[in-house]
Amino acid sequence: MHIVDISPNNLNSLAINTYENYSFLSWSNDGDTVFSVKYFKNLGESDMKIEFSASPSVYLPGKNQKSIFKKSIFLENLDPDSDDLDFVLSDFKIAQKKLNCKKSIINDFILKEYHPIAHPDRTMEFRERLLNQMTSSGQKNQIKTEILHLKWHKNPQEIAEILKMFESKNLKKLEFSDRNATWQMAEITKTEQWIKAEQLWMEVMAEDLKIEDFRHFSEIQMHVRDLEEKDLWSVIQNFRSKNRYGASFHFTYRQGEPDLQRILATFNVIPDDKPIRAATQIRSILERRINHTQRFQLSNPDLILVVMIADKEVWGTVCHVANVDVEAKVETGMLR
């Protein structure tokens, strides 16, 4: 397999997805360069086109090229009863088995670039076959990865099954991506992988997620329809008690808006707006969207929790008192 042949034992990231005319596997060894393979093959055909390419993970006009290389090969005399999904799933399985991967990306991609969206029937077939492969009795060992990025449909049982295929001792961060989906979370939050993970990045809407379900996370980025002031205060109190440098939360409100006065009324300190002094132009621009910045003392006198409230966002960061202007995560939620 090409990815195994050319890659070191440790990968930065590995992604699998399918699109209208091809299936897609991409990976990065170091996070700087992304390699991709497109598989073009239809049922009933004995030939397959494979397109290899490499691109920088970040394109900087005038400093690098959008594409490092691109080449195609053609394979003949293949089983006409196979299609591109057979090959991409097989290679994905081999890569997961033979390579250590920091981040596994399922049903999504590493580079944010255009791909023709697959027909819903093809997408469902891909998900079904991938799920069967990952949860089959032949899968003896759990997958070891630090970050799982998952874009799936609404079936919570399937999502929970996928989570269980990852070794909870290694899994540190969960990323759930699908802005148009609403998930039932009860089955998911019961998994050992959810309970033991330390970071949560969640763009999907959750129907039944309670504050108690994510209190253990030290870093949270979530989309919410709305968030009651008492629940936000509970989050703030939780992060104050954690007293952990670098801990952070960010809530993006999808329907309601943070009511500044009602939020301030829940605080057990006198409201005191102390904006950060942005040291860079971009941080200065981003800081302008903030309506109120409250600083909470922690038991460690060297640390402070900075809570920022904007029109559609509330977020906070545990910073060093002496370095608040640099460490407060103003960019969170905007530059990701």
Give short descriptive properties of this protein.
336 residues, alpha/beta, 14-stranded mixed sheet, elongated, DUF38 domain-containing protein, DUF38/FTH_CAE_spp, FB224
Summed up:
With 336 residues, the chain is an alpha/beta fold. It has helices spanning 2-6, 84-98, 120-135, 156-164, 186-189, 192-196, 229-242, 260-266, 281-287, 324-327, and strands at 10-18, 23-28, 33-40, 48-56, 69-75, 100-106, 147-150, 173-176, 182-183, 199-202, 205-206, 219-224, 248-253, 290-297, 303-310, 313-320.
Structure write-up:
The protein is 26% helix and 29% strand. With 336 residues, it is an alpha/beta fold. It has a domain at 1-106. The chain has a 14-stranded mixed sheet with strand order 5-4-3-2-1-6-7-8-10-12-13-16-15-14. Strand 12, helix 7 (229-242) and strand 13 form a beta-alpha-beta unit. The protein is elongated. Residues 137-266 form the DUF38 domain.
